Amino acid sequence: LEDALHLPVSTLASGPTNSGRGGSLLGGCENCIVIDVGGTSTDIIQVVDGHVKRSEGVVEIANISLNFSCPDIYSIALG
């Protein structure tokens, strides 16, 4: 609770990040690759030490450069 109050943005999550953490927990492994096949896309998520790997470079969404780290997720249009 203290962490959430101090850094509320850290509590934000998305389907793929939740899938990565959940797959890791259900599989009993802290270092793995989780593949989440949904209705419209397939997300490939690397989990390192129990956490979804963060992107190492600058992340852009819709040609807008983001000033914070994002999950490093590879998505393909295959569901």
Describe the overall structure:
- It is a single chain.
- With 79 residues, the protein is α+β, with helices and mostly antiparallel strands.
- It has two helices and six strands; from the N terminus they run ααββββββ.
Overall shape: it is: globular
Number of helices: 2
Range of strand content:
25-35%
* N- to C-terminal distance: 36 Å
Number of strands: 6
**How many strands, what sense, and barrel or not for the largest sheet?**
4 strands, antiparallel
Q: What's the quick description here?
A:
The chain is α+β, with helices and mostly antiparallel strands and 79 residues long. It is built from two helices and six strands; from the N terminus they run ααββββββ.
Task: Provide keyphrases for this structure.
79 residues, alpha+beta, 4-stranded antiparallel β-sheet, two-stranded antiparallel sheet, 2 helices, globular
Q: SSE layout and pairings?
A:
Layout (H helix, E strand, L loop, with lengths): L1 H5 L8 H13 L4 E6 L4 E7 L2 E2 L7 E2 L2 E2 L7 E4 L3
Antiparallel strand pairs: 1-2, 2-3, 2-6, 4-5
